[in-house]
Amino acid sequence: MADGNAFDPDIDAMDLDVFEKHGLQLYRNYTRAFESHAEKRFAEQIDSGSANLSELERIAHLIVQEDPRFLPMIVCAYADDELRNMFKISVPEGVPGGKSDILGRMGPFSDLAKRIQLSYIFSMISHDLCIEFDKLRLARNKLAHSWDITSLRGFFEEPRIATINGPTEALHEGRDWFPDPLLELSGLQRFRINLLWLVARMAYEARFWAKARKHRLQPHQALYGKNSPRLLGKISHVAMVATQQVVDEGRKSPIPADSDNTAGSPTTSGSP
């Protein structure tokens, strides 16, 4: 609502008389109040449960330390487990054929590609997260089926990898997060940081996005808005600590952004 005005700007701009505007504004105010109350109750319900972040902490450690060519496989395996558990909870009891058939090798939810597609179609997690993990899935497939090490040089600068969206651009603006001037991150460092925040979002949304919809809430607003659960801060803390480790490691031994040697050790890649 605009300062010094009884109406929101869009309501004020409508060709209505003052009584109709008051009625519309009153309805909107009550709707907002009810939604805010429902979001707070939903957040309380989430925060009242036990938050075991040990698996997220473990994969965050792997993303920071592991050979980068294995990261798409590791992160995709983690996402696959999260989505499988999400669908296992979401599929109702009594479904013809049983849950095991649906989630089994020949079922419609049988692999990561199908789970990502169905998550997008039915808005089980946010659409942009589905898109980013599909990019990563395709990168994983290329790594898993390539025997020629030289073909992987510069892999982390390829458009498919470089366009994976994450918070690295914001890091240069977030001087309050990292007081010392940030070094120029290499493609590999950006890749690690983006993966950290993608898995953090997956750990959060795979558990609660669909639940928010069942509560007739707007998932993004309920999970990331002003009434978001305290769990969001705990998950963000895990990702932020790991991000700091990547940045600190870069300060110790910065990798040129245009370096071809981003693949780490000379071992060949394999299937996950």
Structure description:
The chain has 272 residues and is mostly helical. The protein has two domains: 1-49; 53-252. Helices cover 61% and strands 0% of the residues. It has twelve helices and no strands. The chain is globular and about 75 Å long. The model is unreliable at 255-272 (pLDDT under 50).
Task: Please give a handful of descriptors for the protein shown.
single chain, 272 residues, mainly alpha, 2 domains
Compute the number of helices. Answer: 12
Specify the structural class.
Answer: mainly alpha
Alpha-carbon Rg, integer? 22 Å
The shape, in one word, is globular
Helix content: 55-70%
Major β-sheet, in short?
none
Strand fraction equals under 5%
**Averaged pLDDT, please?**
82
| Total number of domains | 2
Oligomer: single chain
Reading the helices and strands in chain order gives HHHHHHHHHHHH
Question: Secondary structure elements and their pairing?
Answer:
Layout (H helix, E strand, L loop, with lengths): L8 H4 L5 H31 L5 H12 L5 H20 L7 H6 L8 H10 L5 H18 L14 H4 L5 H4 L15 H28 L4 H6 L5 H23 L20
Helix pairs in contact: 3-10, 3-12, 4-6, 4-7, 4-10, 6-7, 10-12
What's this model, at a glance?
This protein has 272 residues and is mainly α. It is built from 12 helices and no strands.
